[in-house]
Amino acid sequence: MLTRRSFASTILGLAATGALAGCGSASDDTPSAAAGSGVLTVAATPEPHARILTEFAAPRLAEQGIELEVREFTDYVQPNEVVYSGELDANYFQHANYLRDYNEQNNEDLVEVAKIHYEPFGIYAGTSDDLAHIAEGTIVAVPNDPTNEARALLLLQQAGLITLKDPEDLGATPNDIAENPHKIEFREIEAAATPRALEDVGFAAINGNYALEAGLHAADALVLEEASGIAFEEYANIICTSSDKRDDERIAALVAVLQTDDFKTYLSDSFGEDVLPAF
After folding, report:
1. Do 191 and 143 belong together in one domain?
2. What is the pTM of this model?
């Protein structure tokens, strides 16, 4: 079993390359002035990030002379590695809390450029769908990376199932639980594997992007993270790049098209309550 202690050295998931760009009509609030030219390469997880980039951003950037190339990754480690190495220009998959922890663990200095959207984090039914009468010793699958494991524990606390020693601890692990009256057991696995674990565990805490890939939606969750200020501040998904590209005009152009009313409409039409604007 993988634990959060071994996560920093764990690299799972296979990269699948996909480069998509096209042309389309810009909305009234989409920037029309040329922001530069050339190719912008971005690492992303498939849902909803790569879909957003290829469906929405690529056509609008093409109108500005920027070709957007998207490379898909199924894990949470490689997208940062390829940006830090300079292989790709930016990534779009993680929240600010995860980025801070990644930088600390790996002594790197990747930077947040802008907050784009928020995916509600939920607890989903596995072999049981009754959180109100959870059986003693029930196994709950949680992500094994530090920030998302803490996020799962905070959500279980929100549901009234556990109590943390520090009820606002954004870095909590099972060792930081003060009260666990139902004697819940935690199965710490890679975030991407949590949907597949539903067949074998009572419940699973699943990141929004992996829930979407598995055909799950916010409405299917037994309990959802409260979309309060801290959730948007800590867990909104961001555009990230290396420190030397913080002011890159191509990345600025990408952020500009993703922070418009047109984009808010696209999110609502395409994802409903599963993906919410965070700006």
Report:
1. yes
2. 0.83
